[in-house]
Write a structure and sequence with these properties.
single chain, 221 residues, mainly alpha, 6 helices, disordered N terminus
Length: 221
């Protein structure tokens, strides 16, 4: 049983280790590592983690896209570390509005989410000004889409392509790895995402634990 568990574990988390062949973001120079900060608890940030994530969000994508109210408990999504996706923000500035494509507080995604709102970020004024300058005003509320309008310090599930664009422009906002969906890796490699991680210390501990489990598996094989 243990061997089977570890084999499944290793297969599921393989993308978290070694060379990641996702080259949509190529640094022009080595970015400066961000100072680790302790995330605030106002938006239900959860530092705890699991060590096995078997994603089934693809199984529910079509069903969720047809529903107005998505039950987050029915779907299990994985983050860029290969562990369970943590909530990003379930109540932006006390508006009662959750972030994410499904407005459930998670950066989960689905078939109709063509923009891939998968990156849990903490927005800045510099980023918001940049976004407006390229035609995407994120500061103005849009009630019909349950969009509260963002202000400096808000946590929001940003489109992965927009984060990549902001990265190249030098204004990418910091992010939470444990709350960023694994499909973000289609747009940016984990090495770059890690450099902007607010939860870098906690995420590194997750990866150390995963590496220890991999070492245990290697001893058994």
């Amino acid at each position: 049983f243990l061997t089977t568990f570890l084999l499944v574990f290793t297969w599921r988390n393989a993308h978290s280790f070694g060379d990641i062949n996702l080259k949509l973001i190529v640094p022009r120079s080595q970015p400066t590592l961000m100072k680790t900060q302790s995330p605030e608890n106002s938006c239900l940030y959860v530092p705890q983690y699991s060590f096995l994530c078997l994603s089934n969000d693809d199984d529910y994508e079509a069903e969720f896209d047809e529903e107005e109210n998505v039950d987050a408990s029915k779907v299990q999504s994985c983050n860029v570390l290969g562990t369970l996706l943590k909530p990003c923000c379930a109540n932006v500035r006390g508006t009662g509005i959750g972030t994410g494509f499904y407005r459930n507080g998670y950066c989960s995604t689905g078939e109709n989410d063509t923009g891939r709102h998968t990156v849990c970020v903490e927005v800045t004024d510099d980023f918001l000004n940049f976004s407006a300058s390229v035609g995407n005003d994120l500061s103005t509320p849009v009630p019909e889409y349950s969009f509260p309008g963002l202000k400096n310090g808000d946590k929001w599930c940003l489109c992965a392509a927009r984060w990549s664009q902001a990265y190249h422009a030098g204004v990418a906002p910091k992010l939470f790895l444990q709350s960023t969906h694994e499909k973000t890796l289609t747009y940016a490699p984990i090495e770059i995402l890690r450099m902007f991680a607010i939860d870098q210390k906690a995420s590194d501990e997750v990866l150390r634990t995963l590496n220890d489990k991999r070492a245990t598996l290697n001893k058994l094989l």
